[in-house]
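Lecture 7 notes: from sequence to structure.
We start with the chain below.
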Amino acid sequence: MKDLPEQALQEIAAYFQVLSEPTRLKILNLLRDQESNVGELAQKTGYSAANVSRHLAQMAQHSIVVRESRGTSVYYRIGDESIYGLCDLVCGSIAKRYEKIVAERAAFTATVN
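Predicted structure tokens for the same chain:
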């Protein structure tokens, strides 16, 4: 990230902002397995089709997902496979942090008892 122009930093921040919403992360996780249309994603997430559609539009603006029209349906799939490497890296880091907290609490409980 060293020496990146201001515009590039703004785009990076916007990309991460799109990823900062739990609903979008849930949708991305579902698209990891297979492409889906809005109705299928709405059913799987429990959110309204309008809500899912808004989230997909934001992700499409940043090329995180791409859309493909087929007849009367629009299907979405991951547009940038590297998103999963990023998500796995962040999730792995958070999981390690929680594992450490759990171990520390267990050790503390063992010494108190």
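Points to note: The mean pLDDT is 90. The two ends are 49 Å apart (CA to CA).
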